[in-house]
Amino acid sequence: MLSAMKGTTVRREELDAGTRARMLALMQCCYVGVSAERFHADLDAKQWVFLLHARRTRELVGFSTVRVAEEDGVEVLYSGDTVIHPDWWGHKTLQVVFGRLLLARKLRRPWRPLYWLLLSGGYKTYLLAVNYFPRTHPRRDWTPPEGRSEFLRGLATRWFGTQYDAAKGTLCFDGEHYRVRDGVSPIDRDAAAHPHIAYFAERNPGHAEGEELVCLVEIRGWDLARALARSVWGQLRRWSRRERDASRIRVGT
């Protein structure tokens, strides 16, 4: 059985005006302060876009943008705007399509270090990294090797300038910038009890105002293979539960 969500990877220049408009509308549905000018400027700075559609209706229900760059002899993938409509949370399609791109980049030059630069304005984005990749910096239960913190600070300073606070490890964009809408993915009492979420809130206390925690994720081959396997297994479990529920409905009819 196919997933209810379909993910595709396209070059940014392949997007038509209608798709860009639907992407902007989806951002404005889930975030406050999203201007069309800033959205399109951010999109035009990326090379790749993951599009997530409802398989049955073909409605756009999520997307993520990616920039690929080389810095100091290593390859860095930078995630830009990312959103999934709350009705579709729990699906693993974004993890799978992003994992495919990471795998393709890793296989091109297996021995060259590959990193994912991630800005986490909400805890769900942060969990996407720490749940799949143990060598995520910063995280509560891992100490990075010598030089990793310096590399992250230098990279963030070059890319974001004075908007990056090296002492806090966070990014606060100049001028108008979006933030998650109130009531969308709040850190409630249950969420705050999760150790990784509590750590995220401690490291980025300004997340509710749109401040972003700057993270550097080391992508190793083994971790990537395990992450892809977990995503596929999670999707298979969802299909199995859906089939069981459908069977109960048929039996009870």
Question: How would you describe this structure to a colleague?
Answer:
The chain starts with a strand and ends with a helix. With 253 residues, the chain is α+β, with helices and mostly antiparallel strands. It has helices at 17-30, 36-44, 93-108, 123-130, 148-160, 189-192, 195-203, 221-252, and strands at 5-11, 31-32, 48-54, 60-71, 74-84, 114-120, 136-137, 164-165, 170-171, 179-180, 212-218. Helix 3 runs antiparallel to helix 8 (221-252) and helix 4 (123-130) packs across helix 7 (195-203). It is globular, with a radius of gyration of 19 Å. The relative contact order is 0.15.
Brief account:
This protein is of the alpha+beta class and 253 residues long.
Which keywords apply here?
alpha+beta; 253 residues; 11 strands; nine-stranded mixed β-sheet; 8 helices; 42% helix
- Please tally the helical runs, counting DSSP H or I stretches of 4 or more residues: 8
Radius of gyration: 19 Å
- What is the overall pLDDT average? 86
Distance between the termini: 23 Å
Q: Note the beta-strand portion.
A: 15-25%
The counted number of beta strands is: 11
What's the main sheet like?
Answer: 9 strands, mixed
Uncertain segments = none
Quaternary structure type: single chain
The structure class reads alpha+beta
The SSE string, one letter per element, is EHEHEEEHEHEHEEEHHEH
Helix proportion range? 40-55%
Choose one word for the global shape. globular
